[in-house]
Amino acid sequence: xxxxxxxxxxxxxxxxxxxxxxxxxxxxxxxxxxxxxxxxxxxxxxxxxxxxxxxxxxxxxxxxxxxxxxxxxxxxxxxxxxxxxxxxxxxxxxxxxxxxxxxxxxxxxxxxxxxxxxxxxxxxxxxxxxxxxxxxxxxxxxxxxxxxxxxxxxxxxxxxxxxxxxxxxxxxxxxxxxxxxxxxxxxxxxxxxxxxxxxxxxxxxxxxxxxxxxxxxxxxxxxxxxxxxxxxxxxxxxxxxxxxxxxxxxxxxxxxxxxxxxxxxxxxxxxxxxxxxxxxxxxxxxxxxxxxxxxxxxxxxxxxxxxxxxxxxxxxxxxxxxxxxxxxxxxxxxxxxxxxxxxxxxxxxxxxxxxxxxxxxxxx
Length: 364
Hints:
Blueprint: E1 3-6, H1 14-27, E2 31-34, H2 47-60, E3 63-65, E4 74-77, E5 84-89, H3 96-108, E6 114-120, H4 130-141, E7 148-154, E8 163-169, E9 179-180, E10 185-196, H5 201-216, E11 222-229, E12 241-251, E13 255-261, H6 268-284, H7 291-303, E14 308-312, H8 317-330, E15 334-338, E16 344-348
């Protein structure tokens, strides 16, 4: 029986497609999604969404209908997952990170080790940077037993993209539950101020601004690296671009991150200030999971072997939507203590409940 999913629920964006198709591939459940990205302009599938579904189709031997740019309806019927080596290209500056949000959990549940190369934009507005996945997401999901590594081969900025990212994920039999609610302090703050095809004083100014902002807020243990790539460097993007990633390692464990991208007419000092201010705001909530990571962890929590609990710095509509989709596909139930736009505690009972009959009902 094919599960029907309304792509206009909640925030109504591409996340519904990414989460539902990934969970469908892992669990072998056929789905039909309608109203895909109808709240966006342009609506329907964009190149990065099409690439993600094409990738999942190959990795799960799925049959698919409606897979074309602009499509608002899609049927996805997976079979058995397979590991191996794959190369996928968005053909544009479409976000590599958003594609990887679908692929990484599927790669983990494949029958053997998977190596994937994805080409597109590595540092995009309105999407997590590839650097964020490396320094924040992967270290946190490693607590659940997921073993993955990521290598940024070449940066890719708008409009041409052409970035290259290589990911390796080892197979697992089950995901351990995660309990990430304690915040006892900040161990240290690290970061990378990066640029391609720009003068090196820009990354220095970004870093100085970020450090000054953090120091003013009494964060003194700060280590910022500089990456100033020029055309002679293999890693250099084909388009000019710049930005910064900051991430704080916490006691007893956890990583909180923030980033900011430069653009024409935006002072370097503002780029550094934005990233640092966002990080300071996240840390001030004393939650060990930042608002950007919160929605990305939901799918993993739904697939875990037992109950998980996280404390997020801000409950977003993205996170609420992700919970609704995950519950619909997996049957895993969620409980939230908190309100939209505020810090919240999220509990998920997990997919493999040991005693379904006596399990306490958790509602989303």
